[in-house]
Amino acid sequence: MTTTAPIADRTNPSSPVAPPPAPPHPAGREPRSTRRIAGTSVLYAVLIVIAAIYILPFLINVATSFKTDPEAASDPLALIPITPTVAAYRQLFLNSDFPTWFQNSAIVTIVVTLGRVFFNSLAGYALARLQFRGRNVIFVLLIGVMAVPAVVLLIPKFLVINQLGMYDSYSGMIVPLLTDAAGVFIMKNFFESIPRSVEEQARIDGAGTFRVFWSIVLPMARPALVTIIILSFQGSWNELSHFIVSTQSPELTTLTKGVASLASGQLSQGSQYPIKLAAAAVMTIPVAIVFFVFQRRIMNASAGAVKE
Q1: Cβ contacts of residue 210 below 8 Å, gap of 6+?
Q2: Mean pLDDT for each 10-residue chunk of the chain (308 residues)?
Q3: Which of 254, 213, 220 has the alpha carbon at shortest distance from 128?
Q4: Cα separation of 108 and 236, whole Å?
Q5: Measured between alpha carbons, how far is 104 from 173 in angstroms, rounded to an integer?
Q6: Which stretches within 164-254 are classed as H helix?
């Protein structure tokens, strides 16, 4: 007597239905989830290694600044000082011209940053919106300036500053840095992403060109302005070559020139590793503060745009 498996009654919803057989798992092939986890793990491992390569020198910098000079010379790569001390910072602030260097860098950086935000915005808006003869030629020259290495312009820059009577003064340090080609390029591209209809409505209400720029367009360009602020602050704070050719007076020495002069043994004998790296650590603080304050507002290509 043969028995047959019960056949499900399709007309009766309560009738049990046999589940379809599971497809056989391919032999020798891992599940996709396992491969995905392995790939993600490898990616994170690579990123951790790259991050460590970039972070390790900074950690060595901070650690060495708290070492004594003999300890720094004998074991410069140690991350934990054997006898931590703030002697390098004390000597830097009390027995050197470091406060004057810091003051000069702060004055130049603040003025240059504000000037670049204003003048780069004006130039970028003019190239993006105003119609005048030679606009395309100016834009091509702007791209050309971006392609020229900065070191090539040092001698012409010195000759111009000297002829204008601005050598060895704050004006010679600040005026040539008030605009930069990269900032104008960034602002021009951002202004072009803003619809013209926004400006046309303001012009219908009687607003002039500068009023449209200042009250309508510029507030919409906040992401680009934040980008200019970060780049300008970092660039002018870390500038060295321009200050070398524009000043010679010790009273106008900036942080970059002062820290570079420490290599000649200006403050004391020996390697001076703790003093040099203490100065470098202090120099890093303002740039780090500006970056972390504005990091979430760094320019996004779609930010600030208005759809037609």
Answers
A1: none
A2: 49 53 53 81 92 90 89 84 88 88 94 95 91 88 86 89 92 92 91 86 82 88 90 92 91 90 63 84 90 69 43
A3: 213
A4: 7
A5: 10
A6: 170-174, 181-192, 196-204, 209-211, 218-220, 222-237, 241-246
